[in-house]
């Protein structure tokens, strides 16, 4: 088998071992591939690994040897799955590898917004504590999480793990999902989206991006939130209408936001949210702990090995 990795750097910048994949066939690994390079590098490949590299219909039609696209992620919107199926190309993805890491990042954003550890550490290192007349000071209001309500939109593996951690902080949990299961935890109250927005001190998004929910956090939904509430998004950037969020943050109609994702990634250097003190932004790295990336690589290698044996798994339908 000829195996090509089109964009392997974010998965493995050098701290993981590619050899389990390399042992499965003749393997070429590229850190990144431009749109112009994708076709050239994939030519003659039996198996292609892609994270964000786009494999559209016109490209797939030219790859006559291609049998499998192994997506090194859960999302696969960069693949024309319909065209792949028409051409007899299997597509598989990796699921539930990053739940613990993304849940951890969610709480990290919440804690930074409520406790401002980074801001105060910078202040101390700049000498402000040394010059202070008092033994303790605060540059911003600090908020205790115990007794507060977190509303979780999307209650899959990650949302459930966030709920578990939040309950450890003494928080109440509201959840909104398409199909609540009857056997879900009694510690979670399932409510409508409007009820969740109106009654949560923190709203955390953990739902997949679909045509139906694109931009559902907008002027109307933000207006339902408390002026002290926080919005957290570690899911997909386009769930939020960013201009509406900017206006809500500038107008202090919500208390703050913590975002690990944006509509365009990487963003423009003059993105308007960059100037807001009540908005934290991290570079879509919630998934990228060493442990999470190792699990992802293990799943992808297992997917490829199973396909070669004729026992394909994690197929996208």
CATH topology of the largest domain: Rossmann fold
CATH architecture of the largest domain: 3-Layer(aba) Sandwich
Q: Briefly, what CATH class of the largest domain? A: Alpha Beta
Rg measurement, Å? 22 Å
| Count of helical stretches | 11
The low-confidence runs, each spanning 5 or more residues with pLDDT under 50, are: none
Largest sheet: 7 strands, parallel
Shape: globular
Number of domains: 2
Order of helices and strands: EHEHEHEHEHHEHEEHEHEHEEH
Helical residue percent?
Answer: 25-40%
Q: Say how many strands there are.
A: 12
> Average pLDDT across residues?
96
Global structural class: alpha/beta
Keywords: NAD, Oxidoreductase
InterPro entries: D-iso_2-hydroxyacid_DH_PdxB, D-isomer_2_OHA_DH_cat_dom, D-isomer_DH_CS, D-isomer_DH_NAD-bd, NAD(P)-bd_dom_sf
Protein name: D-2-hydroxyacid dehydrogenase
Pfam families: 2-Hacid_dh (PF00389), 2-Hacid_dh_C (PF02826)
Question: Describe it for me?
Answer:
- Helix content is 32%, strand content 15%.
- It has 317 residues and is an alpha/beta fold.
- The protein folds into 2 domains: 115 residues, Rossmann fold (3-Layer(aba) Sandwich); 183 residues, NAD(P)-binding Rossmann-like Domain (Rossmann fold, 3-Layer(aba) Sandwich).
- The strands form 2 sheets. Strands 8-7-6-9-10-11-12 form a 7-stranded parallel sheet, sandwiched between helices.
- Strand 3, helix 3 and strand 4 form a beta-alpha-beta unit.
- The radius of gyration is 22 Å and the shape is globular.
């Amino acid at each position: 088998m000829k195996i090509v990795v089109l964009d392997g750097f974010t998965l493995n910048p050098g701290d993981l071992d590619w050899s389990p994949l390399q042992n499965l066939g003749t393997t070429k690994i590229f850190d990144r591939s431009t749109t112009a390079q994708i076709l050239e590098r994939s030519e003659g490949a039996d198996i292609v690994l892609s994270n964000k590299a786009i494999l559209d219909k016109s490209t797939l039609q030219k790859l006559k040897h291609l049998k499998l696209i192994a997506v090194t992620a859960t999302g696969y919107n960069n693949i024309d799955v319909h065209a792949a199926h028409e051409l007899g190309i299997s597509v598989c993805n990796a699921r539930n590898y990053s739940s613990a890491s993304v849940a951890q990042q969610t709480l990290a954003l919440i804690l930074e917004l409520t406790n401002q550890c980074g801001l105060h550490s910078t202040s101390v290192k700049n000498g402000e504590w040394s010059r202070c007349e008092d033994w303790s000071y605060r540059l911003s209001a600090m908020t205790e999480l115990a007794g507060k309500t977190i509303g979780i939109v999307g209650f899959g593996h990650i949302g459930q793990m966030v709920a578990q951690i939040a309950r450890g902080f003494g928080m109440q949990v509201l959840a909104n999902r398409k199909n609540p299961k009857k056997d879900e935890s009694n510690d979670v109250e399932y409510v409508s989206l409007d009820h969740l927005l109106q009654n949560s001190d923190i709203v955390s998004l953990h739902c997949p991006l679909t045509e139906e929910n694109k931009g559902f956090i907008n002027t109307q939904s933000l207006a339902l939130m408390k002026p002290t509430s926080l919005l957290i998004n570690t899911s997909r950037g386009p769930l939020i209408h960013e201009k509406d969020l900017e206006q809500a943050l500038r107008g202090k109609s919500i208390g703050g936001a913590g975002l690990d994702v944006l509509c365009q990634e990487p963003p423009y250097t003059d993105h308007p949210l960059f100037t807001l003190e009540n908005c934290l932004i991290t570079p879509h790295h919630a998934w990228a702990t060493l442990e999470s990336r190792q699990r992802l690589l293990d799943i992808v290698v297992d997917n490829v090995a199973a396909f070669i044996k004729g026992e394909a798994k994690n197929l996208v339908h």
